[in-house]
């Protein structure tokens, strides 16, 4: 029995060993790095793989990041020049692609399958601008393997050499493990004369790597050129520089557009008008003055309909144990009122079919029809575009210019690898949309336009913007916030009165001035109308439409109280004397009554190397410095 158990255990161990041995892995990752006096580094990677046709179908995939951090923490571009690539000592075919911020080298032939076995790949390449210049020393800080290999690495070794055989290193350090790890579980050593540095690590798991750092005296490598210094300064300030130019450009664009398309004609001196201009009804007055309809203008029409004797508004108070609720009711008095305006007739028509209506959702269909008919009548009587142009097309074009300029800013100021071909597609698409909209926007449905803009421009832009905030300084975020605020101000002020509209607004402002100052300035006016309860009633709907009902009501408080005013159009408390409260409460009730009471049914890489903080003094981490990336099979 014991013999059988031993045999079974032996078989299991054999199978486990066979499985482990059959796994694809990198058997040896040996790197030799020579620092040239010019600052260019020459890298030779000897990568020995065990291929089992799982990942390694055609050959080796090596990825290298296209950016790294400089001394200031800014992203700078990294360029690679391949000197040669070999497999088992013979030059091998390869092709490269840029993707996700990485430069991917596909070694092998896509038309030829790689047989199982052990292969040695040699990748020789050169990289400029990888030396860190500090006050007292210079340094190379290099991620040897990268931290994005999807397969384990048995052994890693790295040899560092300086330009001359007599050049010596000051300090060396290595880091192993996952990206960001501070541990130094490998080993490092210098030769007797400190002219060569050696680094070793064993049994790295997937996504673990080896990073090395070595400092040397200043003068070993040529100091940074003026171009390099300029590039470094530019790299430090490029985000703020391009953002400042972007902001200035947008402010100039918005100002010039406002000057051309949004600046109203010069206003004349406002003279008080005792009567509504052009014999307009309260609704038309409110529609033109407010550049659109709203609930308060609607209430002005309802009050005017009541004052003319078609309906009576009543209010009662319903009390319960814990609450007090005001209820409003509309009583139909006369279905044949000759002096109703067109929109008042449209409002009154559905209501006239009832004798009495509680202002509640019970009569949702009646109030909804009344409101819809009223809006249709108002907008049909007056072509608001002949009085006011909102310049919607200019606003949308302004937004698309903002998008385009923003994309240019991102492309010019950000080299972190998060910017890929998708940005170019968005740039081209939004440019084409800008041109197309400038020609066609007036001929298509605004609902379709909003949907298209939202899906293809607004949502991607907003997503991109908020995603990019993680890579920006607070200054950049603040300036971008000011740019968006500037756009909002631009949109608000881009609307413009026409010549006809300016003339109408001057008269409406004069009429509004009278409503605000009828009592105060009656001695300074030429032949003003006498302040009477009848005048209060007649002009109250206009005061409501122009949003000066509170001031209008206060001017008549004493007079109405003295006259013991008891209106025929309203019964209940005396809140009509303070129209703000009366209109607000009634408006809320009417607005709620229009709502239907029926419920409705209804693995990736960041493509960036680590920081250029000093790593030779022990302040680095695995994944820091230049180099890096990873790879696998393909």
UniProtKB/TrEMBL annotation:
Keywords: Membrane, Signal, Transmembrane, Transmembrane helix
Record organism: Flavobacterium psychrophilum (strain ATCC 49511 / DSM 21280 / CIP 103535 / JIP02/86)
DUF2207 domain residues: 25-216
Protein name in UniProt: DUF2207 domain-containing protein
Bias (Gly residues) ranges: 616-634
Location of the Predicted membrane protein YciQ-like C-terminal domain: 274-556
Signal peptide segment: 1-22
Coiled coil (UniProt feature): none
Transmembrane segments: 239-258, 396-412, 418-437, 449-471, 477-495
Segments for region (Disordered): 589-634
Pfam families: DUF2207, DUF2207_C
Biased segments, Low complexity type: 600-615
